[in-house]
Amino acid sequence: MKILINKRIKKLFCSTLLLIAVFAMISVSLIVLKIDDADLYILLCALFMSILILIIDYLYFREQNVIMDNAVTQIKEYISGNQDARIECDEEGEIYRLFHEVNSLVAILNAHAENELRAKGFLKNTIADISHQLKTPLAALNIYNGILQEEAKDLPTMREFTDRSEQELDRIETLVQNLLKMAKLDAGTIVIEKTEENVSEMMGSIERHFAFRAKQEAKQLILRGDDNITLWCDRDWWIEAISNIVKNALDHTGKGNEIDITWKQFASIVQVIIKDNGSGIHPEDLHYIFKRFYRSCFSKTTQGIGLGLPLAKTIIEAHSGTIEVDSELGIGTTFTINFLIPTKL
């Protein structure tokens, strides 16, 4: 029987069988020898035997409970991040067979995690290599295009095409930079170093960055919020995330439109709302706007490369934040971002 392979179960079974055999022998002896009050002695022997069996069972199950507690502790250790956690399974039996299978599963999960880490590292290095290789020809093309623009000052058609070339070169450069950032974030090679930053000051930096473009396109950036609100964040990455959402708003608004940026603090969160009165997002696109390289079939603009919003979402989530979007065609779009305040948790 497989159940008797385990020495503890075998010992329990043998001890119980021995007690029953001893009880049977004593009972038969008392009956054969016609001892006075044999019935009473048999009853006492039965009671004594039952107590011994209960004690043996208690000791066995207490030992089993300790074994199970140790197994649960090791499983929790592994879940908490200790990849070296293992359940002892040096003995034979069905329960130790289960423990062995759990250890095998842990080894497989560790192997998959290592393979995924290597794959992410390879992806990061590959994209980094490609990005760096593209930087040199891009710089050269920008210089050549600048020369052509100077030469084409008096040639309207030529000037138009050189301006378009400059726009496309800017898009390629943005794509290369965003690909490199996404690859680093995916591979976990970037450490988010948080310090206490003033939200109003960071918003001012974002406003200055887009001020020239907004003026050129006759759009208005409106900032509203408490100057004293602070947030624990990585300044550069936080500005990167909010800037990508503001850029998306500029890309999808027309001349005379407004981008309203407000921030406020509640009991446990700092909330940032970026609202525009532009073209809005088609209902069928709302579920996909944070998907990488997603391009709407309803979009009439060629701006954007489908990485800005996914990158913003990744950075926001790395700051223990959430992002939601609400939009209506022809009315505008609102992004609501909530950042948890650690000291309030």
Outline of the structure:
By secondary structure, the protein is of the alpha+beta class.
What is the number of E strands?
7
Radius of gyration from CA coordinates: 36 Å
- Count of DSSP H/I helices: 7
Shape: elongated
Output the structural class. Answer: alpha+beta
Element order, helices and strands?
A: HHHHEHEEHEEHEE
Please give the order of strands in the largest beta sheet: 2-4-5-7-6
Average pLDDT over all residues:
83
Report the helical percentage.
55-70%
- β-sheet strand percentage: 5-15%
- State the end-to-end CA separation: 55 Å
Q: Which regions have little confidence, pLDDT < 50, spanning 5+ residues?
A: none
Biggest sheet details: 5 strands, mixed
What attributes does this structure have?
345 residues, alpha+beta, 5-stranded mixed β-sheet, two-stranded antiparallel sheet, 7 strands, 14% strand
Structure description:
This protein has 345 residues and is of the alpha+beta class. The protein contains seven helices and seven strands; from the N terminus they run H-H-H-H-E-H-E-E-H-E-E-H-E-E. It has helices spanning 7-32, 38-79, 94-151, 156-187, 199-216, 235-251, 308-318; strands spanning 195-198, 220-225, 230-233, 258-265, 269-276, 321-328, 332-340. A hairpin with a 3-residue loop joins strand 6 (321-328) and strand 7. Helix 1 runs antiparallel to helix 2 (38-79) and helix 3 packs antiparallel against helix 4. It is elongated, with a radius of gyration of 36 Å. The mean pLDDT is 83.
